[in-house]
Automatic annotation (TrEMBL):
Pfam families linked: Cadherin
Protein name: PCDGH protein
Gene: Pcdhgb5_3
Taxonomic lineage of the native organism: Eukaryota, Metazoa, Chordata, Craniata, Vertebrata
Organism in which the protein naturally occurs: Scytalopus superciliaris
Cited InterPro entries: Cadherin-like_dom, Cadherin-like_sf, Cadherin_CS, Protocadherin/Cadherin-CA
Subcellular location: Cell membrane
GO biological process: homophilic cell adhesion via plasma membrane adhesion molecules
Cellular component, GO, one term: plasma membrane
Length: 350
């Protein structure tokens, strides 16, 4: 009997035979008590009675798949004689149960450097029906276009695996609907949430926003020389950046309030006569393990200031001249030099 047959349905049972005649062969039927079934007797030609099994309550194969009943036939003799037969009712399956996932929401955390075809998680849905009605297949349902290149689901075992490279910096969480469908077309849904965890796969980047060069050599300490933006696309400790300048640079680093901007300022007085320019290397390191680094080279030219007086080659020149030297004769040549450059270093005599 199909489990979706409504109450009131009738099913003929085997009629009993009695070799006697008269009242000794007049038969009545009895059925063992069961709330799901009752017995009805249908009068048929030739004075026969046809026993029928009557369905009293709706069946549910998933609750009870079979029933064992006993049909008894009693004749009208004295004493009466009876015969029995076993009646087994098998409830046949109908596709009245959709697939049900073991969880309403599946969650997983995976690292962004997982290789393709790595297992992310496994989902499971069960169907109380049998045969093809209980056979479940899995698929994505109305997922965003960007999910398909990154994840796959095995229709048979419900394994979700990576299909392409994951990038925490591109997107750190994916949420989509997974569908389970049985052979009869009934479906069930569950939500999948995949969180991508950060790996230290990005080195710090240094961008030179402004460089105020050349710098006058008489510029005061604290003068801003350069403005830089230092950033790391990773998060947490992987994205925390520290900076240092190489060598004996006359500059120091000052961090902005936001932390991503670095200001290079004069840390000590400049002297163009000692160094006309300074080659600096700014090194930025993140907090990952192992750490990643980024570098930037900066050239600062020192602009001359008139901070040096002319200096004669001798502090005193002594010249002996005969008294009859002609007018216009060269008596002595003096030389003076100035360490400054350009006009500041051009010397005139008087």
């Amino acid at each position: 009997i199909g489990e979706l047959i409504p109450p009131g349905g009738r099913f003929p049972l085997e009629m009993a035979q009695d070799a006697d005649v008269g009242s000794n062969s007049m038969l009545t039927y009895q059925l063992t008590s069961n709330p799901s079934f009752s017995l009805a007797v249908e009068e048929i030609p030739a004075g026969k009675k046809q026993p029928e099994l009557v369905l009293e309550k709706a069946l549910d194969r998933e609750k009870q798949s079979s029933f064992e009943l006993v049909l008894t036939a009693v004749d009208g003799g004295d004493p009466a004689k009876s015969g029995t037969i076993q009646v087994r009712v098998n409830v046949t399956d109908a596709n009245d149960n959709p697939p049900v996932f073991s969880k309403k929401v599946y969650e997983a955390r995976v690292a962004e450097n997982l290789p393709p075809e790595s297992l992310v998680l496994r989902v499971q849905a069960t169907d109380a029906d049998t045969g093809s009605n209980g056979r479940v297949s899995y698929s994505f349902r109305n997922v965003p276009d960007r999910v398909h290149p990154l994840f796959t689901v095995d229709s048979e075992n419900g394994e979700i695996r990576t299909a392409g490279p994951l990038d925490f910096e591109d997107k750190s969480e994916y949420s989509f609907i997974l569908e389970a469908k049985d052979g009869g077309g009934l479906t069930g849904n569950s939500q999948v949430k995949i969180t991508i965890t950060d790996e230290n796969d990005n080195a710090p980047e240094i961008a030179l926003l402004s460089l105020f060069s050349p710098v006058p050599e008489d510029a005061p300490i604290g003068t801003v020389v350069a403005l830089l933006n230092v950033k790391d696309a990773d998060s947490g400790e992987n994205g925390e950046v520290s900076c240092e300048l190489s060598g004996e640079a006359p500059l120091s680093i000052v961090a902005s309030s936001g932390g991503s901007y670095k200001v290079l300022v004069l840390a000590k007085a400049l002297d163009r006569e000692e160094a006309a320019f300074h080659e600096l290397v700014l090194r930025a390191s993140d907090g990952g393990d192992p750490a990643r680094t980024g570098t930037a080279r900066i050239r600062v030219t020192v602009l001359d200031a008139n901070d040096n007086a002319p200096v004669f080659s001798q502090a005193e020149y002594t010249v002996r001249v005969p008294e009859d030297v002609p007018v216009g004769s060269v008596l002595v040549t003096v030389t003076a030099t100035d360490a400054d450059e350009g006009l500041n270093g051009q010397v005139k005599y008087s």
